[in-house]
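User: Before I run my own analysis I want an independent prediction to cross-check against. Here's the chain; please return only the structure tokens and, at the end, one sentence I can use as a sanity check.
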Amino acid sequence: MEVLRIHITGWVASFRNPLFVSGYQPTLSVPPVSTVYGLISAAYGDYITPGRANIGYVFHSEGRAVDLETIYEFGGGLDAKPNIIKREFLLSPHLYIYTPDIWLKEVFEEPHYPLLLGRSTELATVESIEKIVLKKVTETNYCGTLIPFPNDQISGTLHALPTHFTQDQPRRPQGIRAFLAVTKRNGYVGDAWEDNDKGWGVYFYGKG
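Assistant: Structure tokens:
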């Protein structure tokens, strides 16, 4: 299958864990599917959902750290109360997006809006855009991605996450389901797509 492989990098990244509303803010180890579709929407300049683009992705970083951050909490009025929290973030993130929708090449060559790997301060850069061919295999390895739960061959941290959000305000999560965040290499036997150059499997979401 011919696809684009879009390599995106940054200095830091963080992906909000929906279980933590206040206090210490840990990051997910792997970006949610909704984050990747949000990044594609920013590049395109309009709303992109799983019904419009088919994607797979692999993410890894070179470490994690915790920093102190001042946030301002608004009550019923205009006064803001400062609060200091600990926030975890990932260092030197690398995101590889795979898509058979070749029209996205021009989108990432000239992104409409800034690309982010998390919050508005976590700017990202398109490192490369390549056309490659994924190989159809019967055995591969998954790591640095989300795999729908349950899967008796894959282990990871279980999260309930959306695939995308609505466009209207307030944004509402859509397609919420259980996913396994795969952070260690997992062998998989069955039909799959593999990036031979990188030696990992690519799991696809979207229109089919």
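Sanity check: The mean pLDDT is 92.
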